[in-house]
User: Fold this.
Amino acid sequence: MKRNFSISLKNRLALSYAVFISLALGVLILLVNLFTGIIFENLIRDNITARRNEIVSIVGEQYQSGRRRFDTESLEAMGRYFAGQGFIVTLEDEAGNLVWDARSHSGHHPHLPVGPPANMRRSMGRQGGRPGSPGMSPYSERIPVNIDGRRVGTVSIETLAPIFYSTPEAMFLSSLNRILFIVWIVLTLLTITISIFLSRTIAKPILQAGSAARRIAQVYSKNALQFGDSPGIRIKERYRTREIAELSESINNLAEELEEAERRQRQLTSDIAHELRTPLASLQGTLEAMIDGVYPSDPQRLESCHEEILRLTRLVEDLNLLSGLEWKNINLNKTDFDLSKMLYHIAEQWKSAVMEKGLELDLQLREMPVHADYDRLKQVFINILSNAVKFTEQGSITIKTESACTSGVNENPRQPEWLISISDTGIGIPEEDLPHIFERFYRSDKSRNRSTGGAGIGLSIAAAIVAAHGGTITASSNITEGGLAGGTVFLISLPN
Assistant:
């Protein structure tokens, strides 16, 4: 099997951080270098402009107004000085005649330098300029010389290049470039180190979550659990990053729910075995006694066996019904009827039992047209009302109906619901058992026997039937006027 190449999250994060930050630093340093060069070039341009203006001013000072000519001896000294600075000066009079040229006079004076000095040529070389290249091409500018508002001549100033650095400036730029390069190397190494640390910090909880999920999958795989041991897999570390903390908490919640589901499954198996064992043991004992001649085969004994068989049949049918409802395999035979009339008829059936126990039955019914399965809903309310009568020794049982729109429970009037509450003042259900009473074979009172507690799936069936109709069923403690819990309230909502 061909295995696809993949990179771990830790390495991916480290590589991403390192590449991104290194590129960002490189771009930043490049921009710093670029802007520094631009600033220096502007500074050099300003300096050259100032020097050219200075040359024109000095040349103008050499003009002798009385004799109407320039002092050539002074121009020669001046030209030598400016040539040493990299400026080649040529002077013409007002008629355009050549007065002085640094190049022509350099032939009479071999010691007179023409062009930029060696230090400037080296600094130009550091910039990448070479003689004959565009960066070293001559640059000339003609500037008039005015005396008292009258042009007396024209100065031509030529430089070997428009921009050149002095030795200190070139050395400064070179040092700055080296420093920036070293800083980039150091910051890149530091970035790689921090990236590795951060990637490990981020990837560690994710790897722990993945490891915990794999262990949970292995433990709860087929035939993995033995002897009912609970593995107790948890991520014990507490993380301050919200998303990672939520991931860790989700894994822990998943482990808890799976453990609880496993416990319930074992409890369900035990409960089913118990519910089947009791009638089967009774049947076996009675039949063996009849076979051995201990009990006579009279109608009374046969009726007892028949009752146990019916009990087993009802249990199997209830389990089959519950399974079908949970898997949505039961077809509901829905019709239109008034739910309040159904509740009234059910209450009439239990009226004698209520009166025998000295209880009060309070009916607060209003017309409730519904489109539902009459027999299934009847089974729901009979189950709840029978439990209310069975576990209420004094007080009252109240059946109340109302619309969710008028009661304020549902804020959307476009989807009205009917609410049916059945409350009693009986022994009630402990708060810790309320979330579980709709589970299969769950009994809040573990001491109840089969004659009083039933099989423990009646409320599970009721919840499944209500859910199949698109409604909800909840249970809560019945708070009396004195603020004490006295009994239970079942609240059922059905779509209108």
Summary: The chain is about 55% helix and 15% strand. Residues 44 and 163 are 7 Å apart (CA to CA).
